[in-house]
Amino acid sequence: MKTSLSWLKTHLDLSGTTVDKMRNLLTFAGIEVEGIEVLGVDSDKIVVAQILESVPHPKADRLSVCQVDDGSGTPRQIVCGAKNYKVGDKIPLALPGASLPGGIEIKEGKLRDVESNGMMCSGRELGIGDDHGGLLILDPSLPVGKLFRDVVQPDVIFDLEITPNRSDLLSHAGLARELAALTGNALIKTTASATTKITKAAANQVLLSAPESCPLYTVRTIKNVRVAPSPEWLQSRLQSVGLRPINNIVDITNFVLMEMGQPLHAFDAEKLQSGIVVRHAMADETIIALDEATYALTTDDLVIADTTQALAIAGVMGGSTSGVTDTTTTILLESAYFTPSHVRRTARRLILSSDSSYRFERGVDPQQVLNASELATKLILEIAGGEAADEVIVAGTAPVLVQDVEFDEVRARKLIGNPDLSSAEMHGVLSSLGLKKISSSDDKSLWHIPSHRLDLQRSVDLVEEIARVIGLERIPSRTTGVFTPSQSTDRAYDFAMNLRHAMVHRGWFEAQTLRLISTAQLSHVLGQRVTIEKAIALKNPLSEDHTVLRPSIVPGLIATAALNIRQGLQKLCFFEIGRVFLSIPNGGSREEERIAFLLSGPAINSSWHQKESPVMDVFHLRGILESLPGMAGQTLEITPKPLEDWLLSAEVKRGSKTLGWIAQVAPARAREINARHPIYVAELTLNALQQGAQGLAKFTELQRFPSITRDVALEVPTDLPSSKIAAFFTAQKEPLLTDAVVFDVYSDPTGQKLSSDKKSVAWSLTYRASDRTLETNEVEVVHQRVLKALVGSLPATIR
Amino acid sequence: MLTQLDLLQTEGLAALSSIIDEAGLESFRVAYLGKKGSVTTIAAGMRDVPPDLKPAVGAKLNEVRTTLTVSIEEKLLGLQSAKDAESVTGIDVTLPGRPSTSGALHPLTRIRDRAIQTLRRMGFALADGPEIETEWHCFDALNTPADHPARNEKDTFYLPDGRLLRTHTSSVQVRTMESVKSLPVRIIAPGAAYRRDEIDATHLSVFNQLECLYVDRDVSLADLKGTLEYFFQEMLGAQTQVRFRPHFFPFTEPSFEIDVKLEAKGQEARWIEIAGCGMVDPAVFQAISQQRGDALFNPDEVTGFAFGMGIDRLAMILHSITDIRHLIENDVRFLGQF
């Protein structure tokens, strides 16, 4: 909300309060200062002056030397760079000693050897407007020598963010009241209670048919007004807070809104067919509002209507047909209380916000309704003339929204954490804010809450006021510790961090991609996997790019790869640890933490030592998976699970526990992102992986006796998975056979050295006893037994 | 025989000086000192030397053997060091190194971890909750009125089933208080939150928060103040100034926004809004108590504080990152900088 300092000064003596001091005062009252704009200059050294003569500067083409009349009787010489004036123009002149808003101090001096005794100013140099095109040319009727601050009133505009609980600060009077409490300065004027006679509305004058949304509606008739532009002071007041002057009647309602925080509305009485009806809109009813847009209403919306049609959207905006125009002579001045929740619903639904709805939504003070009506009437009579009805027509009653609150001092001290706060000081704070002590005994007191403080409902609300006013500086800092046991979340976090460090040590980069992705990206990247990992769609996505919660991290990593490929990166090693979202069959959802990997390109970035590097393949990724924390001492199983849209798609297990999947991205997809090498991805469930890292590892005694290795080359069908052979060796109940490792794989597609439907797989078998050195013949016996069993159980021959 | 030995020594030393490699040196050693070498052969003739001459010849023999042995050693050292020097000839150490495998943690991970480690030192433990939340956990239990602006489809993502994507990690406070068996509750809740914002230089629709809650029988604003001052001084430096501005949040009363003073080189120090905090509103304890059906969180007996901050914002401030989108694009030129 824009707030004018000079407007505030009509309520409160703020002399001696600098802009910085005001900023601090507001900030520590809980009112955020979002911007400060200084308008005009409050200086007695800036005057209206007239240019008498202008000649070119002898030494500078772009400068002129002017003689100006500053009212002193003696012409003053000024060197000037502007071009937009002519001799005879009146301009603002800053005399030596003046200081301008930008921090410029005016001094007597010489410009390129020519004396210059002051500065003629542009609008921007004086803090009025942004026009830097040249000098500010003034009204020729202004007398020379007049102080410029009397021509343009200096002001400071504070752009304030008022928190939603403090609707009472949404006006100059309200802010002044708060500042008075905080500074101890007395208010210059307080709003007097309305004295106008009131009459209960007859049904044909005002019919309140929705009292739950509008408990109080008042209207006053003013006849024979002359609608015209507002006087200068009123226009400049409104302009200073960002409102556009329209005509005197509308301007006065806006002025009262900014002055008191009570929205008002003026109807042209002659455009009404009858009395006023406050009712819910009818289904399919529409209204053209003052912004000339047509709004479709629902029966939940409240309108102000006559017997034929809706005239205004209650509390939000007037209608265009019933508004005040230049030809209006009789007005109906509305001042009412609409309930916040109702106005909020309508404003949100219509996406229509106004200064009125903003205040009604947050809650206005119902006790102000008649006062505001009276102030507006007084101003209308002063400015637009006319005769006001003797009575205000009132329908309904002002709801009482505040009640007395009991204040518990002991709990206040405990919550604030300062046992030294005296009750006198705490009571003093409450009193300064306009609360009235009704009674007190020992540690408790009962307080009457002023009607504008809708936010003070409970004892804790009063504690907040005290903490706010005394400030946290007065509260000691306490740093006592509490021992807390770690939780499963802590263990999961630590495991994930270990995993991250392990990956970074392997040279991988950690990515973090958005959890909201597009359906297209999802199905394009995941292909057939989408049916496996069902995504959860948003009801109200903001854009097509972010419509579903990711059921997999892989699409994000592919996008990461694409971006980095565009930047020329060749070696791609990315991982991400994060949450995925899965729909479950009976409705509902499951959230799970996963780690995903993406690998592609050369194993080593090329450099002057080594221009070529082997291109990473699926075994690079498998090697990473095998060495992850959570895999120590355990075997990774990869079970091929062919899946359309993917190559080498397989399930990843540790023992019988499924961890996730691994695959090569379909080359067609990889080409779309201009990948020059195959892309491999894998995705594992963190929790499943973590189960392999539970507890502390147990030490295995180191072997003291040498081992004997025997190599064997097997000729097997090309489609026999290596894991079958490995499984065979693992299953052997030969205590001396301790290890079996593949050391060579060979095939010959030409069929010359080896039949093309066969491959040769060479294994190295390790034999060892833990208690003695083995004899060669002892090993030979076991080895032959193993080979015999192998040939017997697998389609293998020994080469 | 003495003359013979003298001659042998002179010859030997002369031959040694012309040897150019270790193999030659070894042949030389064998030729003189080996089993059949000249010196050995002469030594074998010792038995024929008359007894009165034996001491002099023996001494001479030892002298020649020692002289040759030492000379061979010296020659060997000389040859080796020459070879060592030659082994690095032509190496230009000013050339760049071989590429090392260097990856990097995401800056958000690093900042979050630093915050978590700091809070763990203060005795906070981690807590977690779902990101798909019910309105009750995200709003109702946190004293947010049914018609609060945050609760509409313009600002919050909803699912067709009425649930929503949590707008803050504060829902984890509720989840935790719902389920704990005893006090105190002293938790850190890091996690993603969602707001229906267009993505631009300063906004993401999915962002990262970190939130803390401490509930016990005697928690006061003094604890909140002490905790946050320590936290930000640990995160941002021991000299960091922290200030508390009164503010409003539905779930805390009183509420404050926290500013820290940032001193950047060549710039005027300025206050930067960095977190929100406050004392848990009794209405929150009331809601939790109703849900639990017991008195563990009786609003008349327990108090607590909560604070929360945006990790993205913290990372941007700490690393002077100018565009929040860098945090989700994962360009290695960005990731490699932290």
Briefly summarize what is shown.
The complex is a heterodimer of chains A (799) and B (338). Chain A folds into six domains: 2-40 and 156-183, Phenylalanyl-tRNA Synthetase, Chain B, domain 1; 46-152, Nucleic acid-binding proteins (OB fold (Dihydrolipoamide Acetyltransferase, E2P)), CATH 2.40.50.140; 197-396, Phenylalanyl-trna Synthetase, Chain B, domain 3 (Phenylalanyl-tRNA Synthetase, Chain B, domain 3), CATH 3.50.40; 405-471, Phenylalanyl-tRNA Synthetase, Chain B, domain 1; 488-693, 2-Layer Sandwich (BirA Bifunctional Protein, domain 2), CATH 3.30.930; 708-798, Ferrodoxin-fold anticodon-binding domain (Alpha-Beta Plaits, 2-Layer Sandwich), CATH 3.30.70.
Topology:
The complex is a heterodimer of chains A (799) and B (338).
Chain A (H helix, E strand, L loop, with lengths): L1 E3 H4 L10 H9 L4 E8 L6 E11 L7 E6 L6 E5 L9 E5 L14 E3 L2 E3 L2 E2 L34 E7 L10 H12 L13 E4 L5 E3 L7 E8 L8 H9 L7 H13 L3 E5 L7 E5 L5 E3 L5 E3 L5 E4 L4 E4 L3 E2 L12 E7 L2 H11 L4 H8 L6 H16 L2 E2 L2 E6 L8 E4 H8 L6 H10 L3 E6 L2 E5 L10 H12 L17 H18 L3 E2 L5 E2 L1 H8 L2 H4 L3 E2 L10 E2 L4 H13 L5 E12 L5 E12 L17 H9 L9 E5 L5 E9 L2 E9 L1 H6 L6 E7 H5 L17 E10 L4 H10 L5 E10 L11 E10 L8 H18 L3 E2 L1
Parallel strand pairs in A: 11-23, 12-15, 27-31
Antiparallel strand pairs in A: 1-10, 2-10, 3-4, 3-6, 4-5, 6-9, 7-8, 13-21, 13-22, 13-23, 14-21, 15-18, 16-17, 18-19, 19-20, 24-26, 25-26, 28-30, 29-30, 31-32, 32-36, 33-34, 34-35, 35-36, 37-39, 37-40, 38-39
Helix pairs in contact in A: 4-5, 5-8, 6-7
Chain B lengths: L1 H16 L4 H12 L4 H7 L9 H34 L19 H15 L3 E2 L5 E2 L1 H4 L25 E2 L4 H10 L5 E10 L11 E11 L4 H16 L5 E8 L2 E11 L7 E11 L1 H11 L10 E8 H9 L6 H4 L2 H4 L3
Parallel strand pairs in B: 1-4
Antiparallel strand pairs in B: 2-3, 4-5, 5-9, 6-7, 7-8, 8-9
Helix pairs in contact in B: 1-4, 2-4, 5-10, 7-9
